[in-house]
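[agent] plan:
  1. take the single chain provided in the ticket
  2. run structure prediction with default settings
  3. attach structure tokens to the ticket
  4. add a short note for the reviewer (M.T.)
[agent] executing step 1
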Amino acid sequence: MSPSSSTPVLQRASAFTGRWFAVLVLAAGGLGLLLPDTLAQAAPAVPWLLAVMMLGMPLTGFALARLLDLSPALAAGMVLVGASPGGTASNVMVFLAKGDTALSVAMTTFSTLLAPVLTPLLVLWLAGEFLPVDAGALFVSIVQVVLAPVLLGLLLRTVVPALVERVLDALPLVSVAGIAAVVAVVVAGSADTVLSVGPLLVLAVVLHNGVGLGVGYGLGRLAGLDVPARRAVSIEVGMQNSGLAATLATVHFSPAAALPAAIFSVWHNVSGSLLAGWWSRRPVEPAAVERDRVG
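[agent] step 2 finished; step 3 output follows
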């Protein structure tokens, strides 16, 4: 068996998406031009879907923190995870799940662009009850962590495309290594907390993620979206940018506040992969889509 044939499907999809991301986005835009009447049906639902991602999830984190009586630091961490934008891994999961990848990319993009304003405000509103929150400092950090690298990447791709192509294959490895390092440092810095409330915190994270996946799918159904779009919304709402949440929690709160994000980094990739694998074995037949719309 050759090395390529033994590579897991998720790695192949990740490499493909990373290598052809710009082309996929352009193709999605072209698809919108070719099928305006079909794809425009989802447009009225997008603001509501983004509202669920940016409001519903921090409210869920707040409610779970209250219900499970988490410490102030852990409660603030739960809110911060829920207030973070969609994670980039969600696009790969939606692709594997045979979902609406164009909708997934659009939701991730818009939630990320809104994050510098909405995330600090939501954290100030909800987490401010547990710990002091400096919304202005959060804004600056999000711009530094999220928007600045994106703009720098676009600049490098324009100025030195050959160099970017040479290092492109290594970027998924760098990303995974970076997240793994963050998780290791966060857990090491709060080892006592992990040992004392580990199972309870894992339960909170699993419930948070499960609520996001379920509510996302249900909202898509209520909005009249087809099954591929529902799958996209489900994964987008259920998967947050936990790397960003861990960084913000560590810088602005404490290592303990970053624990929910660290655990979420592991769990949402597990749950997302399992869900994507299950859905990938259940392709949506055109006839079924039409019956679903009529119904």
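[agent] step 4 note for reviewer: Residues 220 and 230 are 5 Å apart (CA to CA).
[agent] ticket updated
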